[in-house]
Amino acid sequence: MADEYRLVYMTVGTKDEALSIADALLEERLVACANIIDGVTSVYRWEGKVQRDQEVVLIAKTGVSRVEAVIRRGRELHSYDCPCIVALSIKDGNPAFLEWVDESISQ
Q1: Cα–Cα distances in Å, from 21 out to 31, 34, 95?
Q2: Strand, helix or coil at 39?
Q3: Which structural domain, as residue segments, surrounds residue 33?
Q4: In this structure, which long-range contacts are made by residues 23-26, counting pairs with CB atoms below 8 Å and at least 24 apart in sequence?
Q5: Could you give the CA distance from residue 98 to residue 56 in angstroms, rounded to a whole number?
Q6: How many folded domains does the chain comprise?
Q7: Nearest-angstrom CA–CA distance, 98 and 95
Q8: Strand partners of residue 58
Q9: pLDDT at site 1
Q10: What pLDDT is stored for residue 107 in this prediction?
Q11: Which H/E stretch holds residue 99?
Q12: What number of CA atoms fall less than 13 Å from residue 61's CA on the CB side?
């Protein structure tokens, strides 16, 4: 079922950091794959001030059973004090792709 899968969305400071986190999550079989989108402008409020920074988005595909571990490991590897790491439900998808996700995160 598609609802057993998640996209984990994370923002990081640099492409190198995104690659490092993605490599660790893949090596540990916590995610099937990760997309890295460089050059994102983020506008947010931090410590009472509006901030504008260049960030990198990391989007990882995983199973619902791995989400807690992905978030925990992402926090351990992340350079931010309060990183954005959120899991989004997948409602529908290509069954063959979702089967591949299962195979990729299996031990």
Answers
A1: 11, 10, 27
A2: strand
A3: 2-105
A4: 24/73, 24/77, 25/60, 25/70, 25/73, 25/74
A5: 25
A6: 1
A7: 5
A8: 10, 36
A9: 64
A10: 72
A11: helix 95-105
A12: 16
Amino acid in the structure at residue 62: T
Q: Which phi and psi (to 5°) does residue 16 adopt?
A: -60, -40
Residue type, 66: R
Which pLDDT value is given to residue 2? 64
Give me the CATH number covering residue 68. Answer: 3.30.70.120
Residues of the chain with pLDDT under 70: 1-2
pLDDT for position 3: 72
Contact 79, 13 (CB under 8 A): yes
Q: Where are the beta strands (DSSP E) in 13-103?
A: 33-46, 49-63, 85-89
What are the two backbone dihedrals, phi and then psi, of residue 2, each rounded to the nearest 5 degrees? Answer: -65, -30
Report how far residue 32's alpha carbon sits from residue 50's, in angstroms, rounded to the nearest whole number. Answer: 35
Q: Return the structure tokens found at 58.
A: 């990391």
Q: Encoding tokens for residue 36?
A: 């890295």
**Residue 54 CB partners (closer than 8 Å, separation 6+):** 39, 40, 41, 42
